[in-house]
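Dear colleague,

As promised, here are the two records you asked about, laid out in our usual form so they can be pasted straight into your sheet.

NAME FIELD: protein one
SEQUENCE, THEN STRUCTURE:
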Amino acid sequence: MNVREWRAGIAADAAFGVVAAAVLAFWASLIADSWGGGYWRFGCAAGAVVCVAALARRLDRTWAAVAGLAVAATAVLASRFAELPSEPGPGMALGLSVLVGSAVRALPVRAAGAVAGGGLAVAVGSVLSANTLTAGVPSVTVLNVAAWLAGVAAGLVPRLLDSRRRAAAEAVRRAERLALARELHDVVAHHVTGIVVQAQAARIVAGRSPEKVGGALADIEAAGSEALAAMRRVVGLLRDPAAPAAPTAPTGPAGLGELVERFTADGRAVRVRLPGEDETAAWPPEVAGTVYRVVQESLTNIARHAPHARSVTVSVEREGDAVTVEVADDSPRMPARHHQRGGYGLLGMRERIEALGGTLRAGPRPGRGWSVLATLPVPGNDRR
C-alpha cells in the first residue's frame, strides 16, 4: 500500500467514525424519547462495539467480521428476550454493512461468502426482535436487509472489476511472453546455427588429424543441432498458427530516428540523444528490439494521454554493462493521468524487460511531466 492509498484509507475511516457516532447518538435520542429511561444504553453500546470492529477491520478482516456478527446476533437475542428496542439498530446496521462489504471485497471466496451469509442471517433474524408483526415486514428488518445489500454491492463491484483487470493484465503478459519467445527463438537460433557452421568448418580443417579433434567437434555439432531442433519444437507449441508473423522492428539509431520523426509530425519538439551505429551493432538483437519497443510505447502514450506536452526528450545511452532508455515529457500534471498512463502497454514492456534482467520505472516527474526509464543489461564483452 502506497502513501496515497494509506491516507485515503485513514480519511475514509475517520469519515465513517464521525458518521457512525452521529447515527448512534441520533438513534439513542429517539429511543430515549419513545421508550424513556435507559433503554437506549444497550443498543448504543452494542452498536458502538460493532462500529469499532468495522474501524479495526484492516487489522484482520475475518475476525473483525466474526466479532461484529457475533455482537449483532447477541443483540438480536437480547432484545427479543429482554424486551428491549429492536436490534440491530441503524448504527449497528451501518457497521455490519462496512464489515460485510470489506469481507466481500478482500477475503477469499469461501470466507467472503460465509461472512455475507452471516450478515444476511442477522439481517433477516432481526425480525425476531421486532415488537410487532401486525403491519407486515418490520421496519428494522427492511433497514438491515437494505444495509446488507449495500455492503455486498460495495464489496462485490470492485472485486469483479479487479478480477477483470487481472485477467486483462494476464492476457497482456501472456501475449508479451509469446512475442518474446518468438524473438528469443530467432536470436538463439542464429547463435546456435553459427555454432553448427563453425563446428562443421572445424571438422573440415581438422581432417588431417581426426584422431585429435574430430570426435569433440562432432559432439559440438550434434549438441548444436539438437538444441536448435528442441528450441524450434518448444517455440512452435507457443506460436498461434492463425496469427501472422510478427514484423521485425527497425532497430538501431536509424529506426529510432524514423520513429521520432513520425512523432514530431504533430508539432512537438523532441530532443534526441542516441548512440552511434557502431555501438548499437554490438548489442544483442533482443536488447536492440526492446529499446525500440520502449521508445515506441512511450511516445504512443504521450500522444494518447498527454496532448498538452510540447517538449519530449528521448535518451538512449550505454553506461558500463547496461543500456539506459529514458523518455520524458513536460505535460502538466492531471488528476486522472496516473491511472491513464498505467496502461497495459507498459505492463507488457515491464514483462519483456524483466525477462531480460532489466528494470522499468514509469511515473510523474518532479514539478510536471512524465518519465519512463528502462535499464537493460548488456554483457561487457559485447561492447566494441
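NAME FIELD: protein two
SEQUENCE, THEN STRUCTURE:
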Amino acid sequence: MFNRVFLRIKNSIWLMPALLSLTAFLLAVAVVWLDIYYLEEASSVFPSIFLVSVDLAQTILGTIAGSLLTMTTITFSIIMVVLTTYSSQFSPRTLQNFIKDHVTMRVLGIFIGGFVYSIFSLLFMRERSVDNHVGAASVGVLIAFICVAIFAYFIHHVASSVQVSMLIERLAKDSLETINKRADHIKENEHISLLHVPPVPPINLSKNTNIRSEQFGYIQLINEKKLFQKANEQECYIEISKKIGDFTLESKPVMTVFYGDQSEAKLDGQDLTIGKERTTMQDTEFGLQKITEVALRAVSPGINDPNTAIQCIRHLGLCLRAASEIDGSYLVYYDKLDRPAVSIPQRPFEDLLRSSFYQIAHYGKNDISVITAIFDALYDIAEDHSVSIKEKTVKFSDYLVEKIDPGSFTKLDKEIIKNKKSRLDELLE
C-alpha cells in the first residue's frame, strides 16, 4: 500500500504546486490577521519602513500578482518547449524525467504560491482608518524577490536539462538506484533466493486458483512484502505469472495461488499495481530502455551523433554491470520451513543485455565507433566477474559479430573488431 501511494505521489504533477499554494494561502491569512489585530505590537518589533499604507499595499500587491502570473505563464511556456525538445530529440519516455523533476514542480509551485498570496492578501485587506499601516506588502515584496531568484535558477536548470550529457547521467543514476535497491533488498533478506528455474510448489498444496487482473495496463509494482506475509498467514504458495513492466489485459491471470485442503486462498489483484505507463520504481529494464532510446536517436540518419550514442553505451555498461549481480529468472521467498512461499519472475541478465544493445547494434552496425564502444562495454561488464556472466557476455558478442556488415568496414576496421572480440574471448580462458 505504501509503495502504491508513493508511486501515485511521485507521478503526480499537481502535488507540489498544490502544497505551496495552500501554504501561501495560510501565510496570507496569518499576515492579514497580524495586521488587523497585532499591528501595534508589530510596530515595536519591525522597523516602520516595512509598514506601508493600505492604498500603497494594495498597489504593490496588485503589481506583484500581475507580474507573478506573467512569470508563471512564461515558465509554463518554457516547460512546454523543453518537453517538445525531449520528445523530438531524445525519447518520449524521457518526458517523465523532466515533468516529475523536483526543481520544475517547485518553481511552478512557488510562482503560483506567490500569486495566491498576493490575491488573497488583497481580498482580505480592509482599510479601517487613514493612519492604518500593514506589513502584508513587505512580505509580498520578499516573496517577489524570492520568485525572481528562483526564476533565474530555473533558466539555468532548463539550460542544463536540455544538455544530452546531463540527461544520460540522470537516466543512468535513476536506473542504478533501482538496481541497487533490489540488490540490497536481496542481500539483506536471508529468505530470498535467485533461481534460473521456477520452484516446484509444495506437495501438500494440491489446489490452486488464478487471480486475474482487474484492468489492463503495465505491471508497475509488486508488493512483495505483503504477498509474503499473506503466504505465511494463509499457508499457501503464490506464483506471480507476470514480470514487472509486462503488459496485461483485463481479466487475464496475473498470479496463481496454491493451497491445501486445510487452507483457503483469500487474495486479490490489489497487491499488483497496474497503470497506463511503465515506471522505473521497480522496472530495471525500463530505465535501461530510456538510455537505449537516446542512443537510437543519436545514431539515426537525421541526427547522426555517434558520440552521444557512445556515451549512452558506456552508461548502459555501468548499469548492466550492477544488474549482473542480481542475475536470475525467478526471485523466490522461502518460509521458515524453507518452502517456497512467493515466486516472482524477473528478467535475467541476458535479457537485459540483449534489450539494451541489440537495437543499437542493428542501427549502428555500419559505424565502427559504435560497434567498438559496445565491445568495450561488454568487456567492462564481464571483467572480474563470474564465469556465468562472462559466458553470457561472450555469447552476446558472437551475436554482435553476426550483426556487423563486413562490407561497411575497411581492413583496419575489421582488425580492430577482431582484436576487441579476442580480448573478450580471453576472459573465458
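A couple of things worth noting about protein two: The longest strand covers residues 253-259. The two ends are 49 Å apart (CA to CA).

Best,
R.
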